[in-house]
Amino acid sequence: MNTLVEISNKITQCSQDDRLEIIISLRAFLFDSPVHYWIDFTYSENYENDLIICQNINPNLFKKINEDNIKKIGIKPIDLFLLPRNKKLYLINLIEEIFEDFQLKVVYDKIRLNPLYEDNLYMFIKEHQEQFSKNIIQTYKTRNKDVNYLLEEANIEHQIYETCFLLARKNKIIDYWINIWGGTTNYKDATLIEHLIIKWKHI
């Protein structure tokens, strides 16, 4: 098992060797989100093309991509999972410093598999509309509209201590959302279907 010092040294070495995709995947695991999508627009010559490649990747395959990246430097997912919270935070801060030094434009599309997160990708697309086609903008605008409507209907209250009922309800909402926007179908369909969101008041 890798120690904190060993992992830190490997992160630093990756930054020096310009192997930034490994650092990005490491960050995903440190946030306990190995399946969450990420797109590196830093050196991109075509934002839309990079986005399309990412959005058409199956979630299970994206997890494998992140796992394969960290294995390149001899780190296993369990090494990061077992780290105490304070050590994870140390590594996250180290990675954030590297991101800042390299001025990386990395966008995490966490909302794709969990509607309870912020829609950072849509915000990025809105800020760089000149880089994307109308179809792409409309796709993510529709997704953003769907998630806002879903959360409004679900009416999830933020509580310090969550009950089993609330956790179960959140899991149902996440599962339902993944069935709509977690796969690749709606991203490949340029015309998009109109989604019928379930009324969550009775769940």
Features of the shown structure:
single chain; 203 residues; mainly alpha; two-stranded antiparallel sheet; 10 helices
In a nutshell, what does this entry contain?
This protein is mainly alpha-helical. It has helices at residues 4-16, 20-30, 47-55, 59-71, 77-81, 85-102, 120-127, 134-154, 164-182, 185-188; strands at 37-40, 106-109.
Polypeptide structure, described:
The protein has 203 residues and is mainly alpha-helical. It has one domain. Helices cover 60% and strands 4% of the residues. It has a two-stranded antiparallel sheet. Helix 2 runs antiparallel to helix 6. 23% of the residues are buried.
Number of strands: 2
Overall geometric form: globular
**Rg, Å, rounded:** 18 Å
Distance between the termini: 43 Å
What share of residues is helical?
Answer: 55-70%
User: Residue-averaged pLDDT, rounded?
Assistant: 86
Number of helices: 10
Give me the strand/helix succession: HHEHHHHEHHHH
As residue ranges, the low-confidence spans are: 190-203
Beta strand %? under 5%
Adjacency order of strands in the biggest sheet: 1-2
Q: How many structurally independent domains?
A: 1
Largest sheet: 2 strands, antiparallel
Secondary-structure-derived class: mainly alpha
